[in-house]
Structures are given as structure tokens and as C-alpha cells.
Inverse folding.
């Protein structure tokens, strides 16, 4: 698996949105998926 890295400069009034599907694919201590 590969990852891409980047940099951005934010100015006053700019916005940023983070999105990840990592939580729905994560498992609890019983090895059950959170998203199911």
C-alpha cells in the first residue's frame, strides 16, 4: 500500500475538510467492525 503526502498553505477564511473511511473499517476489542 502506498500513501501520498502533500503540503498546503491555508489563509484566514480558508476551510479544510478531512475524510477517512478508517473508522468504519476499524475493529473493537472483540474483533467486530465498528461500521457493521
Amino acid at each position: 500500500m502506498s500513501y501520498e503526502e502533500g503540503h498546503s498553505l491555508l489563509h484566514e477564511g480558508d476551510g479544510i475538510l478531512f475524510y477517512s473511511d478508517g473508522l468504519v473499517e476499524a475493529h473493537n476489542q472483540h474483533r467486530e467492525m465498528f461500521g457493521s
Q: What stands out?
A: The chain has a mean pLDDT of 83. Residues 9 and 15 are 11 Å apart (CA to CA).
